[in-house]
Amino acid sequence: MAKTSPTAIWLMRLGFAGVALLVVFFHLLPLNTLPVRWPPPDFLAALCLAWALRRPEFVPALLIAAVMLMGDLLLQRPPGLWALLVLLACEFLKVRMPPQHETPFLGEWTTVAITLTIITLMNRMILGVLGVEQANLAPILVQGIMTLIAYPFVVLISQSLLGVRRLTPAEIEAMGARS
């Protein structure tokens, strides 16, 4: 049976915030004092997109905005821009994606890839228009590609360890009958 009780939903929301804090903590942890050759994937954005597609009730807009804004502030990105773009992407995917039991994972991954590419380019374009100093294009593209490669692993960990899985058609019908 699906976890649809209000208590379970709030526990999963707290779990999402906890996992996001853990991701930021490990990103900030100084494991290596040498400069990195390749930028790491944006696990925070991948986590938001994966949870928004699989169980949108676990990640309301305000929670996504708060988590991403915290990530912007702690990771020293321009505050609010990436948070807004990821929030818009998540809300777009929540509304536009067909029911998840009908979409194979490859279709989901392709949709996430297109959406992530669009918001990455929008981020770069907006920062360019505002005259904010930016990194070269190559590291940003590498980070986007690394994030897309990491997305299946984020989904796998979310599904196997945290229980964030797609609803079955029977669970969707049961939820609709209760409403």
Structure description:
The chain has 179 residues and is an all-alpha fold. The chain has one domain (6-28, 35-173): Arp2/3 complex 21 kDa subunit ARPC3, CATH 1.10.1760. It is built from 7 helices and no strands. The protein has helices spanning 6-28, 43-54, 61-74, 81-96, 105-129, 137-160, 169-178. Helix 5 packs antiparallel against helix 6 (137-160). The longest helix has 25 residues, at 105-129. The two termini are 16 Å apart.
What descriptive keywords fit this protein?
mainly alpha; Arp2/3 complex 21 kDa subunit ARPC3
What is the 3D form? globular
The string of secondary-structure elements, in order, is: HHHHHHH
C-alpha Rg, in Å? 17 Å
What portion of residues belong to β-strands?
under 5%
Number of strands: 0
The amount of helix comes to: 55-70%
DSSP helix count? 7
Q: Roughly how many Å apart are the termini?
A: 16 Å
Brief digest:
The protein has 179 residues and is mainly alpha-helical. Helices cover 69% and strands 0% of the residues. The protein is built from seven helices and no strands.
Describe the secondary structure blueprint for this structure:
Elements: H1 6-28, H2 43-54, H3 61-74, H4 81-96, H5 105-129, H6 137-160, H7 169-178
Transmembrane segments: 7-29, 81-97, 109-131, 137-157
Keywords: Membrane, Transmembrane, Transmembrane helix
Protein name: Rod shape-determining protein MreD
